[in-house]
């Protein structure tokens, strides 16, 4: 039997079979011993903020997490990127487990993925590589269903005009993602495909051994009464007042996310012993790496005004056009409302002779891993017509932390989230380069009669490195592609949180299967890598109890 705890705020009547399944477990039996695995998905609150970011003039930033069934896959931008083969080969070289290598992880990406045609059913030849995709998985992936021909053709033409600076890549998800190509996203029939619509969809939610307990927030995992080093019980609340417990006969699988998982561990007395005892929390397991190595990708949005009416703003700022497109979407699931936030994406490396490498070792996983991302052709809320390039440092050197609130370390209070954006000078150098790469792309011949100029502070910022640094510090946000707070390490290492089989070091009965176990952030949006980690984790669990 599997029980998933999800803390969210949707009306249960709107959740159909999920709510019906959940109701089966809303009784005093929840406090009894249940012969099951416990899948703990204690999703974080959606109004978190960071600690003051020293690298951003002390700014406190929003840090939203998915507070709904499906977690952040139900709220994110739906961008589907796996990362490079180097990213996963580095996991193997770091942990000593060959199962994390690209060639061994690719089948798990394929197991998760269900490739579907784009909403407009346009000819996709030359826009992706069918050989590296699967039609047999559960999470739908597709190409843009409304390609915006004016800007799209200019982007692709630039890969022909400037192939050295902006090479065309047929498929970002084939293992070598350096270049410019068509965006892939988790969309099916013009709508979002999330882990809620797939893994908790009609095919699975009716299973008799699955119960989804809504509006439940996990506070701690607890050791067995027979051994302080064997974990078997989950403590949770549905009202943050009364506590309930359920006990697993085999093991607890914690997947509360990159923020929630270290938070639950720390509240459970698993973490740095000295720090925990200083907060009045009894230390159960001295594991100093919990909450450390927290890594995220900083993001900056950059906007240029364009000489075209064929942009996202042509309907987002026109109530009549928007109503027409909404009707079209409701009737046929076609039109501009079928798409995610961009049509193309570019993954690029810094020049190998960049001066920054005189000061810093390259933080990327290897030559197939980018330092920079440009998400191209995004909508803008300003009046007018625009081209937006959202730039990100996808191989950052900065490392932050998840720690308990020292003022009130209650399990139901938000933790202290410190992504430490731009703590390393490498990341500032890389973000400057990413923005200048956007400027270079939009100065290409294909954009000569299209781009009118940068908007607002960006124009002034491009004048000098110092001005650009100030612009970045004032406008950057976290990418919310966080990993690392419960990172895996070699089996007998004295650092790290989990072994390569994802079992928590030094104890039994407790395994972690979410993005927090990744020791390095992949050079990608982290949704697809997290799905693959979860699929491999499932196989590990099944093989352990076969």
TrEMBL record:
Q: Does the keyword Flavoprotein apply?
A: yes
Annotated active site: 481, 525
Q: Gene3D superfamilies attached here?
A: FAD/NAD(P)-binding domain (3.50.50.60), Glucose Oxidase, domain 3 (3.30.560.10)
Q: Name one GO molecular function term.
A: flavin adenine dinucleotide binding
Q: Which keywords describe this protein according to UniProt?
A: FAD, Flavoprotein
Q: Which InterPro entries match?
A: FAD/NAD-bd_sf (IPR036188), GMC_OxRdtase (IPR012132), GMC_OxRdtase_N (IPR000172), GMC_OxRtase_C (IPR007867)
So which domain of life are we looking at? Eukaryota
Q: Boundaries of each Glucose-methanol-choline oxidoreductase N-terminal domain copy?
A: 257-271
Q: What residues bind FAD, as annotated?
A: 68, 218
Q: In the UniProt record, does the keyword Ribonucleoprotein occur?
A: no
SUPFAM superfamilies (UniProt xref): FAD-linked reductases, C-terminal domain, FAD/NAD(P)-binding domain
Give the residues annotated as coiled coil.
Answer: none
* Pfam families linked to this entry: GMC_oxred_C (PF05199), GMC_oxred_N (PF00732)
- Cofactor annotation: FAD
Q: Hey, which family's this protein in?
A: Belongs to the GMC oxidoreductase family.
Instruction: Tell me the protein's name.
Output: Aryl-alcohol-oxidase from pleurotus Eryingii
From which lineage does this chain's organism come?
A: Eukaryota, Fungi, Dikarya, Basidiomycota, Agaricomycotina
